[in-house]
Amino acid sequence: MNSQRPPQRPARPPLTREEAMRRQAYRKMQQRRQMQRRVAILAIAALFIIFTVILISVALHRSSEPTGLPDTTTTAGTTTASPATTSPDETTAPAAKDITICIDPGHGFDDPGATTAHLGELTESDVTLAIGLKLRDELTARGYTVIMTHDTNDIPAGTPAGEQYLFGLAKRTAFANEKKPDFFLSIHGDTFEDDSVQGSRVYFQSITGADNTAITAIAQNFVDALTLALPDAKKAPMLKEMADDNAYYVLRNVDMPAVLVEVGFASNAADAANMLDEAWQAKIAAALADGVDRNFAQ
């Protein structure tokens, strides 16, 4: 038996101050890394829990919604199904029509059109724009594509002070000819020195020696639509033919079928009161849309 003890390792020399600081820094770094790993693990676990809760909530919500199938009840061994219902959007959504209508609210910007005491602070251009916007919405709801020569009377920003901004007749007709709509409808209000004159009028251009049957029928359809919409009018809507170059500028300078509608006389107290009434404006807009339907409904 060997009684000798195994040789002992020589004692480590004491750490220098620099070594001790490095060792301490290393330990702190290891502790920091370990803490970061723990935080990362906790964050991942928290996200997993939140995601799981969301999935469960969505699943519970879907399970509580109607299945979309008609309810069935069983009576005496027979099964009956309740009638399926259709949402309003599904029943009232209009079929798109391959027809483009250009609406031209008369006057506007620096050109107010007719101004009468009956209209107060408003002008013809205010009335025609209000009706034009209502007509735009009505036609759009019926599936037509609608463009407007202008949808505001506000003078564009940047117009030099003191200068006029007139989107005049030449520019309006050029705009329509460039866009190539299927129909051009200009909206105006009339005036007359005899303030008893009232009623609406539909103007169209005829060409001497040409076949004017189509445009006459188009204009008549608007007269008929206005007549039905205004059964209580004291003056029935009138059809007004304007031959050749005696026609209004917009009628003779657009390349598509066109009519100009004078909705009433601002010089007449009763007509002016109607022209200022929003409900009446909406009625006129709907009647003009009916006129479009009479001519272009597919």
Could you describe the 3D structure shown?
This protein is of the alpha/beta class. The protein folds into 2 domains: 41 residues; 190 residues, Zn-dependent exopeptidases (Aminopeptidase, 3-Layer(aba) Sandwich), CATH 3.40.630.40. It is 44% helix and 15% strand. The protein contains 8 helices and 8 strands. A 6-stranded mixed sheet has the order 4-3-5-8-6-7. Strands 1-2 form a two-stranded antiparallel ribbon. Helix 3 crosses helix 8 and helix 5 packs antiparallel against helix 8. The longest helix is centred in the first third of the chain and has 48 residues. The protein is elongated. The protein starts with 16 loop residues before the first helix and ends with a helix. About 9% of the residues have low confidence.
In short:
The chain is built from 8 helices and 8 strands; from the N terminus they run H-E-E-H-E-H-E-H-E-E-H-E-H-E-H-H. It has helices spanning 17-64, 88-92, 124-141, 169-179, 213-229, 249-252, 269-276, 278-296, and strands at 72-75, 78-81, 100-105, 145-148, 183-190, 201-206, 238-243, 258-265.
The CATH homologous superfamily of the largest domain is termed: Zn-dependent exopeptidases
User: How would you characterize the largest beta sheet?
Assistant: 6 strands, mixed
Task: Assign an overall shape.
Answer: elongated
Named CATH topology of the largest domain: Aminopeptidase
CATH class of the largest domain: Alpha Beta
The strand count comes to 8
